[in-house]
Write a structure and sequence with these properties.
The complex is a heterodimer. Chain A is of the alpha+beta class. Chain A has two domains: about 120 residues, no CATH class; about 140 residues, no CATH class. Chain A is about 40% helix and about 25% strand. In chain A, strands 1, 2, 3, 4 and 5 form a five-stranded antiparallel sheet that branches. In chain A, strands 7-8-6-9 form a four-stranded antiparallel sheet. In chain A, strand 2 and strand 3 form a beta hairpin. The longest helix of chain A has about 35 residues. By secondary structure, chain B is mostly helical. Chain B has a domain of about 70 residues. Chain B contains four helices and no strands. The chains are: A alpha+beta, B mainly alpha. At the A-B interface, strand 1, helix 2, helix 3, strand 4 and strand 5 of A face helix 1, helix 2 and helix 3 of B.
């Protein structure tokens, strides 16, 4: 067999077949590679793209990276509907099947432990945005021309103050929301706020959190998020998921917490 | 046993999922395994992407006191600069101490 092996995830063996038309990275259908009590989900990928040099170069190319990231996530997503996958980081590539098996053999214990910990759980993403400053007021309602420098400064101060108020409200809101949601989740992670250019979202992202929630409690969690949505003017809450437990898949995550 | 129970309808996922959501998960989260093809995603190459993920919101977030990533040298050039600054200060201090010793030694040596 030719080509390299791109590994998406490690799971326990599962009975339900994957969707027939599912394609992975580079258009190759994901295949199951069993080893002992584990299954690796792999695609065959060409060396021309995934050997060290070309891969390194490709990773700098946001369009290429986007395609691979979506394909990777597509496979993980499909797995999430039939089992609890342990998602690997993008770009985990081996020379051949036996390399993948050796890796599974070496990491077997840790994989099983983590799979037990995540079994039946999914990740929900919650983001809070402060809607864009209404600074460039519609020209229809221009602020009265400042009659003096002092007037100008006063107007400026008032604008800044209302912006400050919004930020303070947003901070309090995000803190409260995170506390509330953490109560209905088993675990949580705070991620760096997102770049609006990349996310295409409007407003400033001020909270970007992930919550580990049992599937059976997901409905309740989603309702809880929904209830907060119309809470405060100028503040928007966005929910994504269910994701595979990407943010909680690291073996040592619990020890790291709070450091 | 691994068959999931009913889940709520997906929110903002699939093809419509925001690119930043997907990238931050597949690049930054998930299990790290050294494959045969050695690409360290923490290398400089991807730093550019990481920074693109983080940078634009930074000013406003800082105003709110959200700045925990700033101390992570992998995410923050400031953190890297701070490390350099700290090292620099240490070296200056040592140099100053040495310079202080120097004239004394020069005096002692001169008859």
């Amino acid at each position: 067999m030719t080509g390299l092996r791109y590994v998406y995830a490690v799971c326990r063996p599962f009975g339900t077949p994957l969707q027939a038309q599912l394609t992975g990275v580079g258009g190759d259908p994901p295949r199951l590679l069993p080893h002992h009590g584990l299954v690796a989900v792999v695609s065959h990928v060409p060396e021309a793209d995934f050997a060290e040099e070309p891969l390194r170069a490709h990773l700098e190319d946001l369009d290429w990276l986007t395609g691979v990231a979506r394909a990777h996530q597509g496979v993980i997503d499909a797995l999430t509907t039939v089992t609890t996958p342990l998602p690997l980081r993008l770009g985990t590539v081996f020379r051949d099947d036996s390399g993948v098996r050796t890796m599974m053999q070496a990491r077997e214990e840790g994989f099983l432990r983590t799979l037990d910990r995540l079994e039946g759980r999914v990740e929900w993403g919650v983001k809070v945005y402060v809607e864009a400053e209404r600074e460039p007021e519609a020209p229809a309602a221009p602020a009265p021309r400042p009659a003096s420098g002092r007037d100008y400064l006063r107007q400026r101060r008032m604008r800044t103050k209302s912006q400050d108020d919004l930020w303070q409200r947003a901070e309090a809101f995000a803190t409260r929301l995170h506390e509330t949601l953490s109560e209905s989740a088993e675990d949580s992670r705070l991620h760096a706020p997102q770049n609006p250019t990349l996310s295409g979202a409007s407003g400033r992202n001020v909270l970007n959190a992930a919550y580990l929630v049992p599937r059976v409690k997901s409905e309740e969690f989603v309702e809880r998020v929904d209830r907060t949505k119309d809470g405060v003017p100028g503040i928007r809450v966005e929910l994504t998921g269910p994701w595979a437990a990407y943010s909680f898949a690291g073996e040592e995550t619990t020890e790291k917490e709070g450091t | 046993m691994t068959t999931p129970s009913r889940l709520p309808e997906p929110y903002g996922q699939g093809s419509s999922a925001n690119l930043a959501d997907i990238l931050e998960r597949v690049l930054d989260k998930g299990v790290v395994i050294a494959g045969d093809i050695r690409i360290n995603l923490l290398d400089i190459e991807l730093l550019t992407i990481k920074l693109r993920l983080v940078v634009a919101s930074v000013d406003k977030a800082k105003e709110m006191g959200i700045d925990w990533w700033e101390s992570d040298p992998a995410l923050s050039s400031r953190a890297r600069r701070d490390e350099l600054a700290r090292e620099n200060a240490e070296l200056r201090e040592r140099l100053a101490r040495l310079e202080e010793l120097e004239p004394r030694r020069a005096q002692e040596e001169s008859p």
